[in-house]
Amino acid sequence: MLPLDRATNPSLRALEALRGYASVVVVLHHFALGFLPAFKAQMSRGLPAYSLGWLLNGTGAVYVFFLLSGFVLTLKYFESGEAKGLIGAAIKRLPRLWPPAAYGVLLGYIALRFQLNYNGEAAILAGSDWLEKFAYTDQTQDISLLRAVKESITVFLRYRTLQFNSNLWTMVVEFYGSLLALFAAFALAGLFRPRVLAHKRQCLIKAGLMLAVIAVNLMIPHGYGWTFTVGAGLAYGYSHRYFLPKPLAICMGVLGLILVGSPVAGQSMLGAALIVLCVTTPSATPGFLLGRIGQLCGRWSFPLYISHTIGVLTLGSFVYVNAASLGAPLQLIAAFIATWAFAITFAYPVLRWEAWYLPRLNGQIRRLFADKP
User: How many domains, in total, are found in the chain?
Assistant: First the structure.
């Protein structure tokens, strides 16, 4: 039987690398929106979308993020069957997400407050509506630290146009979607066990819970809720060792890569699910996800996600404007290097924070639910 320890289970270690590569796609997506808008539009339709579109489809990468959250959050519960694991995961979700999100808001506030953003000048040269509007944020409000603090909290409560870091729109989906995944896991656990099926009352309760999960998913726009629920479903199958044959799993992975670049949300979400299904099939796990580069990308994925958009709007735009005399290829290369330099530099504090903070947070949760003598 495969262990559920990421350190020893190749399939689970590969998920971290997959998250890392998805974060790279999000960076490329925003870089193209900023400095290559016409090329980005071409890659979002027709044959380019279904061939290499996965390289620049940030929406598909976000679906991967959400699916992985649903999978990872619920897998341990399916294996142990202890409801306290679900409760602990729910309690931990906001304390785990808020500090990096607050940091991302602070980066945007500093950029705007001290006018370190050069997105306006770069937008004129690149013809990018995304750059012109500071990555589609609300710039009609006064720039104040109080507003930034407020945004760092309300970003988890309701979906709205943000002011300081539009990339954090995913936080509200991640928070509520995580809770939905945990509820879906509780509804799904033991649903098909003979003991449950033999008792009409238990069976009706489980069926009612599953109907509630479906109803909630139908109310969430763009299918975001389904990604967490499907992720929980894949974790359920993994915990019961329901694996596809290797050739079929590989075919599913290839099909997923084709579909994840699709501009159609449903197709892109399906593609993300097929990719996760392939990666979590032990015999079909791509070897490159287990290498040092993949694992490194995995560790940096969330920190890079937090910092990179502000990098495009500040240092990336500054270099793009001042390198215009070099000509298009060198200008883009210089802006690309500058964007990554900013993203890595300002992702590093988040990386170090998580290395210090997450073990302590996990320890507190474990102590909270430890059996009392």
Answer: 1
C-alpha span between 39 and 281 (Å, rounded): 35
Alpha-carbon torsion angle 300, 350, 160, 156, nearest 10: 110
Tell me the mean pLDDT in the region 92-119.
96
In a domain? residue 143 = yes
Q: How confident is the model at residue 372 (pLDDT cuts 50, 70, 90)?
A: very low
Question: Would 1 be classed as within a structural domain?
Answer: no
Residue 116 per-residue DSSP state: -
Sign of the C-alpha dihedral computed for residues 194, 195, 196 and 198 taken in this order:
positive
Does 56 map to a domain? Answer: yes
pTM score, whole prediction = 0.92
Residue 158 CB-density burial (10 A; 0-12 exposed, 13-18 middle, 19+ buried): exposed
Sequence length of the chain is: 373
Handedness of CA 304, 305, 307, 313 (dihedral sign): positive
- Closest of 293, 247, 255 to residue 274, by C-alpha: 255
Q: Which residues contact 89 (CB under 8 A, 6 or more apart)?
A: 73, 77, 178, 182
Q: Decide if 4 is inside a domain.
A: no
